[in-house]
Amino acid sequence: MIVISTAAALIGGVIVALLLVGATFALFVGLRAAAAAGSAVRANRRFEALFAAAPAVPVLAYGDGRIELARTVADWLGLKELPGRIDELASVLPVDVLGALKNDILAAHRAARGFTRAVTVPGSSRTLMWRGERAPHEIGIGAVIIWVFDATDSQREIEQLSAQQGDMRGAFEALTGLIEAAPLPMWYRGADLKLAMVNSAYVAAVEGANAADVVGRGVELVEGSGHGGPLAGAVEAREQGKPHERLLPATIGGERRSLKLFDIPLPTGGVAGYAIDIEDLEQAHARERRFAEAQRTMLDRLSAGVAQFGRDRALVFCNQPFRRMFAMRNEWLADRPEFDRVLERMREANRVPEVRDFPSWKAERRDWFTEAVSAFEENWMLPDSTHLRVLAQPLPDGGLLLIFEDRTEQVQLASARDTLLRVRTATFDNLFEALGVFAADGKLQLWNNRFRAVWELEEEFLSSHPRVDVVSEQVASKLAHPARAKIINELVRAATMERQTRGGRFELADGRHFEFGVVPLPDGNALFTMLDITDSRRIEQALRERNEALENTDRVKTAFVANMSYELRTPLTSISGFAEMLHGGYAGKLTKQADAYVEAILESVARLGVLVDDVLDLTQADGEGVALELEDVDLAAVARAAADRLAPQARKAGIDYVVEINRSVGRVTGDPRRIGEVIEHLLRHALASVGGETGSGGRVLLHADGNAARARIVVSDDGQGMDAQAAAHAFDRFAQPGITSGGARALDLGLPLAKQFVEAHRGTIALVSEPGEGTLVTVELPRR
Fold first, then answer.
1. Beta strand pairing status for 244-252 and 255-265?
2. Residue 10: inside a domain, yes or no?
3. At the N or C end, where does the chain have fewer CB atoms within 10 A?
4. Where is the Histidine kinase domain (predicted)?
């Protein structure tokens, strides 16, 4: 027998009680969990239903390229299997779209930057909208949730609405631009009839700053209040529901104008309006009345008779010549007789042609009012041999204007003209020149016997009035060069169409030469003339051959002078060498008189050497041109060196030798040797002009300066100068004798050489001289 103590029993009871409480609690928790699970299942089913019915389907993308795609999205993309990575979408998406989508996912993953991208599925018209953002941590760490929904219908609707909006915006802008550009003042009033919009013409009319200023201040176009105020027309137009029109005065630009105002009610309750300035129209009507009066006054002074009939065929106006021409009395015309009565009155006065059936003739003239012809013209031969030209012009208002011109004198003149034409034809046929007249359309109209004989054309062919191209083809075989026959077409066209005078020469196959010319005539035709110049051509050829012979002779002369100059240099060199040896004492000491003779020989040899060099330069420049060795030239140094070389000669002659070289003379591109020779030639000419070798004194000036474009060299003297004829030929070769009366060298070759060298540098040289006043020579050289 087991004995349980009270304490043990108490402990056991407590344990049992605790177990009961624990079991009860566990049962409660289990029941509660089961209830919660059932609620969660129901909520999950509800969310699944909502999720299935939602227009957007989620897609989860991860930074490592994994992707969780719903079946719906796969179907939209045309995928048979669900992809596990985003790169697997390359089979259905273009490379650029897939790359942009991957960049969007990466940006959302790293920077939590949301994105929206529209993707068009290739091969279908479906458009999917992808909107992504970083997913909450509960969905997945590093995941990006993308909501994809089918935006095909909405995108199409958006495009349609955008297109409609663009059309409406364009229409609105065009309408606004039209209103703004309209030259008429235009405005719009709201439902309260206050100005809501005005155009530029309205602002200009009221002299406002801008449209906003005019609308803000409510500036009205017209003045007044009450029934005549600016709002009266708008009120009446809105009450009547139709446009309202009225005429009011207004002051625009400081002038009083008459405006026709139009108010048009709009469905919105507002009223639109515009104004037309009819002041000019009223003045135009007044001017039209004055013009009509002036026109009638002028018509009274015409020599032609004028009669105007209204749409009721009554005479509304006739001038004085009409009344005199048809013996119409003023009191009879005052009753405004009808057209038929006027014709009958004219017949009574024997002022209409004699016809067998006058009623029918009159009915034909009555049709002038209704015929759809711009004008009718006919000639009336009256019983007294008067010739009338009648012009009938239907008027737009249904009336008729008749003009009667007495052409009796013109008919007589035409008869005299026919006589003159016959005389002209006879004159043409007896001229030595061949003549042909071509019309503006190129057809041959007139010709003379000489024209037919030169080209050997048949009269039957010419009588058919052939075109100029046919004539040129016919005469081509008569020319030495048949292809030149086409020039006849061009010349006739130039004379008729371009009104130009042309000329030239033809050579016929038989050796004859003709000078031709094509002259435009006042009537639009062209006159083609041919003159036989065979004899003058032969004389011309003989003169040309003679000229060629003279030119050959001149070339032979030039070659002879050049060869002689070369041949002279050898003995001159020997003479100079031996004379220098004698002067230097190699043959023994000379007497003072012999030494003076040797010095004279050396001076003469030097002068002759310079003359030979000048002749050589002239002949070489004439044959082959001046050869230049171009370089950068310090013109001041070259000028000073040339002046120094002639300074001893000036001092020996007692000449006031002045050299002025400014720094502005600068540098030029040229041949320094030739430029130095130019200056020397000019200085020698100046020294010789003032008696440089006779010791008669005088003054010679060398001046040099320049600007940015050109350098200038001036050589002047106060010597004997030249007359006009000598100055005109100063630069001609061999224009003066080679030796002066005093035995000194006349530098007639210096100036021509200087001119050739200057022109070779593209410069200019000019000479000014007066007898007894000296000479001034100016040379200008370009910098480049």
1. antiparallel
2. no
3. N
4. 563-784
Mean pLDDT of the region 650-675: 90
How is 555-574 classified by DSSP, letter by letter? HHHHHHHHHHHHHHHHHHHH
CATH number at residue 311: 3.30.450.20
Q: Which tens digit of pLDDT belongs to each residue from 297-350?
A: 777 777 888 998 988 899 988 888 888 888 888 888 888 899 999 998 888 888
Q: 777 and 683 in one domain?
A: yes
Residues 371-411: tens digit of each pLDDT: 766 788 888 888 888 888 898 888 888 888 889 988 888 88
Which residue type occupies 694?
A: T
Domain count, the chain: 6
- What's the chain's Rg over C-alpha atoms? 58
Structural domain of residue 472, as residue ranges?
421-531
Mean per-residue pLDDT, 741-767: 74
Nearest to 604 by CA among 743, 751, 749, 752: 743
392 & 444 share domain: no
Q: Same structural domain for residues 500 and 562?
A: no
CATH number, domain containing residue 704:
3.30.565.10
Residues 114 and 124 in one domain: yes
Question: DSSP state, 656?
Answer: E
Torsion sign over Cα 98, 100, 103, 109? negative
| Structure-token match 């009958």, residue found | 344
What order do you get walking across the sheet with 526-532 strand by strand?
444-447, 434-438, 526-532, 513-520, 502-507
Asked, for residue 30, whether it belongs to a domain, the answer is: no
Does one domain contain both 763 and 635? yes
Q: What would the DSSP string read from start to end of 311-361?
A: TTSBEEEE-HHHHHHTT--HHHHTT--BHHHHHHHHHHTT-S---S-HHHH
pLDDT in tens, 188-210: 888 888 888 888 888 888 888 88
Residue 411 corresponds to which tokens in the numbers above?
């008919």
